[in-house]
Amino acid sequence: MLKTHYLHLFNRLFAIQLFIIWLLGCIGVFGSDLTETLWPSVLTGGIFWILLVACSKLPKWQSPRFYWVGLLQLIACWSIFPLFKAIRIHFYSWSADHLLYTIDSYLWLNKSLPEHMIALQAPWFSELIAFCYFSFYFLVIGSALFFFLQRQKNTSEHYFLGLMLMYFFGFIGYFILPAVGPYGAFPTLFTYPVHNGAITLFLTGMVEKGITGMDVFPSLHTGITLYIVGFLFKTGYRKIAWCLTPLAAGLIVATVYLHYHYGIDVIVGALLALLVLHFLFKKKKVENGTHL
């Protein structure tokens, strides 16, 4: 666990990272005439970033300060995230998809992992997997509110720090290797959507609205899912973690099955989650929910 001054330093670094994304996103929005679709992200992202910085400046003796900082970090993060689309359009003229596909094909015996997944496609399975993928948003929101409302400083501090570390390093990966994913980069290889069922089509519509074109490597759907379930295990909420495990497994499979990610994205996302969990708990054991 980070010492207090290092924790404050990371919070500043994360705030700076979010500001850079917001600023570059604003330049992209106005430079590429994307105001009609991304203006809400410019406005809300800026507002929540200001609230985050203001909350971080409150006196240390105000105990509620930390809980609001953690929650505001997540809200600001999600508000600013759509601006990656403007950054991708305005600043990038290349994509890392071919590189990721080549690496993936090498790792999985001359075929990328999403290509191998095609053999598993079935209407009922596609619907189930699409449901699992969509549950990611409820998993993040639910766990964030769970630890926020508990007001257990030690546990909440660990949870939000780990979650923000996942986003911090994930966003760096987006900038270094921007990619749209298998279905967008290789439409002749991957049929999309994989099925025309109600849940799959609903998910497809949601993804189309939120796609940025550079949020593939690493797979934060994989990494954050593993992080949340792992954190629940580590903090004693083992029954909850076991209940979430099948859903988490389906969600991770969905990232590749639905052609949103390459296998290498999933591997790196999983490794990132393991590293963050190791970092959080290597010196200090945190248990709070042993009865759950």
TrEMBL record:
Transmembrane stretches, start-end: 12-31, 37-54, 66-84, 128-148, 160-180, 216-233, 240-258, 264-281
Location of the Inositolphosphotransferase Aur1/Ipt1 domain: 100-277
Coiled-coil region list: none
UniProt membrane topology term: Multi-pass membrane protein
GO cellular component: membrane
Keywords in alphabetical order: Membrane, Transmembrane, Transmembrane helix
Keyword Membrane: yes
Tagged with keyword Nucleotidyltransferase: no
Cross-referenced InterPro entries: Aur1/Ipt1, IPC_Synthase-Related
Location within or outside the cell: Membrane
Pfam families: PAP2_3
First and last residue of the signal peptide: none
Superkingdom to which the source organism belongs: Bacteria
Protein name: PAP2 family protein
Taxonomic source organism: Providencia stuartii ATCC 25827
Lineage per the UniProt record: Bacteria, Pseudomonadati, Pseudomonadota, Gammaproteobacteria, Enterobacterales
